[in-house]
Amino acid sequence: MRKSLPFIAFGIIVLVALITPLLPLPNPVTMNIVRRMASPSALNWLGTDEYGRDMLSRLLWGARISLAVAASTAVLACLIGGALGIVAGYFGGWISAIIMRATDVVLCLPHLLVAMLVVTLFGPGLSTLIPVLVFVYIPSFVRVAQVSTAMIRPNAFVEAVGTLGARQFRILTRTILPNVAGPLLVQVSLTASSAIMLESGLSFLGLGVQPPAPSWGSMIGNARGVMNMAPMLLVWPCLALVLAVLTINSVCDRLRDLLDPHQVAKAPLKQTAAALARRAASRVPAAGDLVEIRNLDLALAGSGEPPVNLVYGVDLTVKEGETLAIVGESGSGKSLTALALAGLLPPAVQVVGGSARLAGQDMLSLPEPELRMLRGSAISMVFQDPLSSLNPVHTVGRQLTEAILAHRPMSNAAAQAEAVELLKLVGIPDPVARARNFPYEMSGGMRQRVMIAMAISNRPSVVIADEPTTALDVTVQAQVLDLLRDLKEKEGIAMIFIAHSLPVVSEIADRVAVMYSGEIIEEGSAHTVLRRPMHPYTRALIASSPEGDDLPEGIPGRVPPPAARPSGCAFRARCAYAAEICATGHPPLVSIGGDHSTRCVRWREIA
Ligand SMILES: Nc1ncnc2c1ncn2[C@@H]1O[C@H](COP(=O)(O)OP(=O)(O)OP(=O)(O)O)[C@@H](O)[C@H]1O
């Protein structure tokens, strides 16, 4: 309820502004000199102004103008600035240079002075005010959209859509736009509250909404002259202004929280978080599966387009204390499968079927607030790049302390002591001094240890480690793998370990699932899959990163893009064992003894 309060308050403000013409209020511009500056009464609930006009009526009609100016300014600036920013971020080069330099120039101009100049030249009124406000707010949208697009542009999925022959316009609108919509939406709400302030400032100076039309700014300006005799005339419009801006800012904060699934739960949720985590833990069937992913189908949904399947019918289970490794080349669907379990799928990717249960709780049907409480407490993640996952402006000790306090109510001092213990547990020497370091003061290996400490800080039942050693050099890789293995043995935490290379997972995994082109093609105990691989793709993966002095053998070709997945076996175009039968029908995942299964129809010949 507390979380939806800003939306409720905003909804009430908008509703009241919309129905103002229907309310039985006195005309906001009709003067009544006899009742000048009258005190509040049954006739005029908030009294009258210096011309005898009803204050309540003027406030509500003024709200309509303020909100209309704010909404049209924010939407128009978002459309123009967002489009320019996406184009600049996507194409880069001279196009970006021109757009961004022009943006810099506009940003250098003081908003209020530009608005005053234009309004003075072209005359006051809404038809001048709105375009000038749109002009001064466009640059902030350009910047947000440009930065977000430039960050998404290098991702494999953007290139994949391009290689399918999609036109630039389609890539921009269907692939990039859904990924930058979140930050743009937050900017819309920020701009709306800022535009209300600017409009009021201009109206106060007599350059905005023209009398006798009511506007909060002009009401403040008029009340200033009579504030000695009727101070409340100044209070009401100021109060309306403060309330509207505060409400829009709170909506903006909530939007940011809702649109950023990586945010951890805030302090008020501590009790519920702990309760949920306990509830989740208590649901674990005695010797049952902690994680149970069944028939998971994920797709890239474009408006009006048939969805492109990215992950097909994935079935996976992880028992308590067990480590499951998901292995495969880039683009095989490993990360999306794990992200679905954590409720962290990118906005463009949708669940089209199946379930992903953690301790019996279907994570795909949980609302975001509950998911957020479980993240960090029942399930946590270690990402590939610790530098971008750690906040550069806080010490690692503080970040660890906050991670603990977000889920467990305790004193700050106790959380700090626990943070130091955690640093010690993950093998960081001199943990008390290291807790005071900023992330940039640590080596890559140290930072990854901090990330691991953070992931286990609330004793989750399962940790997802998404290529945690890829960004590290070989020696440090081995140390981090040793640490994860130790933690798994000492703490009994289950783990889903995502990797490209099979030898890496041989160190740590109990079971291995090999993924190719969105589906599992082989699964079994780590020992069996590594010693007796029964799918040519698994064999090729092992040969591509051999142990010892053997030379690696590259796998010819590349993973087919999701929209161009061939019929039959998806690996057949790259497979040395491919035969006619591989092109007919989709090969099922068949059990070939014990818990070992493969999707290769020719596994007997391979054996
Ligand atoms: N936000 C997204 N929008 C559109 N497509 C996406 C998105 N994220 C992933 N994909 C696509 O989904 C498919 C599977 O991606 P996923 O990241 O799960 O692969 P992966 O095996 O984990 O690869 P990597 O090892 O590179 O992380 C890829 O084709 C990828 O391009």
TrEMBL record:
Transmembrane annotation, as ranges: 65-91, 112-138, 184-209, 230-248
InterPro entries given in the database record: AAA+_ATPase, ABC_Ni/Peptide_Import, ABC_transporter-like_ATP-bd, ABC_transporter-like_CS, MetI-like, MetI-like_sf, Oligopep_ABC_C, P-loop_NTPase
Main subcellular location of this protein, as a coarse class: membrane
Key words, A-Z: ATP-binding, Cell inner membrane, Cell membrane, Membrane, Nucleotide-binding, Translocase, Transmembrane, Transmembrane helix, Transport
Record-annotated ABC transmembrane type-1 domain positions: 63-252
Domain ABC transporter: 293-542
Cell compartments where the protein resides: Cell inner membrane; Cell membrane
Coiled coil: none
Keyword Magnesium: no
Membrane-protein topology: Peripheral membrane protein; Multi-pass membrane protein
Keyword Coiled coil tagged: no
A Pfam family it matches: ABC_tran
PANTHER family reported for this sequence: ATPASE AAA-TYPE CORE DOMAIN-CONTAINING PROTEIN (PTHR43297:SF14), OLIGOPEPTIDE TRANSPORT ATP-BINDING PROTEIN APPD (PTHR43297)
Family affiliation: Belongs to the binding-protein-dependent transport system permease family. Belongs to the ABC transporter superfamily.
The name this protein goes by in its record: Dipeptide/oligopeptide/nickel ABC transporter permease/ATP-binding protein
Organism of provenance: Rhizobium puerariae
Organism phylogeny: Bacteria, Pseudomonadati, Pseudomonadota, Alphaproteobacteria, Hyphomicrobiales
